[in-house]
Design goal:
- This protein has 346 residues and is mainly beta.
- It has helices at 14-18, 312-321, 325-334, 341-345; strands spanning 6-12, 26-32, 35-40, 44-54, 60-71, 78-84, 89-94, 97-102, 114-116, 118-123, 135-141, 146-152, 157-164, 171-175, 178-182, 186-191, 197-202, 212-216, 219-223, 228-233, 243-244, 251-255, 258-262, 266-271, 277-282, 288-292, 295-299, 304-309.
- Strand 19 (219-223) and strand 20 form a beta hairpin.
- This is TGFA1 protein.
Length: 346
């Protein structure tokens, strides 16, 4: 039985981004506050401002206003974008090079600071340096079986550590000194400070796309064998039961108390509280699903959509109205920290 947990709302439509140029595809997205950045296959970055509007009837819509777009001068797609708002910098991966650009005018930093030889990269959201004017970046290097850690400042970059892995890494998430890695045949946790690693479980990256996602302090969400979404801590244990995904999940995101997954045809919503599938939204041709500061965004090659969660109180009332008291209680107790105290008492 389903719960209406999310509503899918269009944010950027095809015409706004590409007009009648059908060859343009969305490769990656980044959202930071109201700023939405889109990287395309023809080497452009687009910057939009997202404005959330709520009607008197409580209906939410998004208005995206285009600020500017910038050509990076290569014939390659922009493959990843990450915002470092404390530095007002956008980290842009294109043609195996990470460039630093200004978040406002999209101009490269004057010093030309860049990181070369990156296949993919991620930011450490639980940094170890303690310097507020620096972000820690972890890259999978073009050098075989190599991970590199960098400190990125406003106008310079500095390599901190190079770590070798037992097999070729293909996906990574970071928490403090811990790297959660998808290798060719398995997932592992690796402490890059001590060099100690721990095997999690086997996985064949050649058959399916691995998913490695940091979901909280010292905890990760992984696409496991048999279509399972598995949780793992840095100690290599699982403190939550897995959720049952479809076999071909492309992306996953967390919006407490739900885990949202994207496959070729659907967006599915599972509860972390009882592992049950709560909602299915038809969504064709999706290839990106990410959460940014609690905002869940999905994209096709041509458009960007936002999954807006319905208020938890409303979800609880709907469950009670359909006589699903047990589920309503599980949701109310599990989501207690997200519900105002007086509403929780009711």
């Amino acid at each position: 039985m389903s719960v209406k947990a999310f509503k899918l709302i269009s944010a950027v439509e095809q015409e706004m981004l590409m007009g009648d140029k059908n060859y343009i595809n969305i490769e990656c997205i980044e959202c930071c506050g109201k700023n939405l950045y889109i990287g395309t296959n023809d080497c452009f970055i687009y910057h939009f401002l997202l404005d959330e509007k709520v009607s008197t009837a409580g209906i939410i819509t998004f208005a995206a206003t285009k600020q500017l777009h910038k050509y990076l001068g290569l014939k390659k797609p922009v493959s990843e974008l990450k915002a470092a708002s404390a530095l007002t910098r956008l980290l842009v991966l294109c043609d195996n090079t990470i460039t630093l650009v200004n978040m406002i005018n999209l101009e490269p930093v004057p010093t030309g600071a860049r990181i070369k030889g990156a296949v993919t990269f991620t930011l450490n959201e639980n940094p170890v340096s303690g310097d507020p004017f620096c972000v820690e970046v972890c890259i999978i290097s073009v050098k075989r079986r190599t991970i590199q850690m960098f400190m990125v400042f406003e106008d310079r970059v500095q390599i901190v550590k190079e770590v070798f892995t037992p097999e070729q890494p293909c996906a990574v998430a970071v928490d403090g000194y811990y790297l959660c890695l998808a290798l060719t045949t398995q997932y592992i946790i690796l402490n890059y400070n001590t060099g100690i690693s721990q095997d999690l479980f086997p996985y064949c990256s050649e058959e399916k796309r691995p998913i490695v996602k940091r979901i909280g302090r010292q905890e990760f969400l992984l696409a496991g064998p048999g279509g399972l979404g598995m949780f793992a801590t840095v100690d290599g244990i699982s403190q939550r039961a897995p959720v049952h995904w479809s076999e071909n999940v492309i992306g996953a995101a967390l919006c407490f108390p739900y885990v949202v997954a994207l496959d070729d045809e659907f967006i599915t919503v599972h509860s972390m509280l009882d592992q049950q599938q709560k909602q299915t939204l038809p969504f064709k041709e999706g290839h990106i699903l990410q959460d940014f500061e609690g905002k869940v965004i999905v994209a096709t090659n041509k458009g960007v959509y936002i999954l807006v969660p319905l208020p938890l109180e409303k979800q609880i009332q709907d469950l009670l109205a359909s006589h699903r008291v047990e589920e309503a209680l599980v949701l109310a107790k599990g989501a207690r920290r997200n519900i105002p105290k007086e509403k929780f008492q009711v």
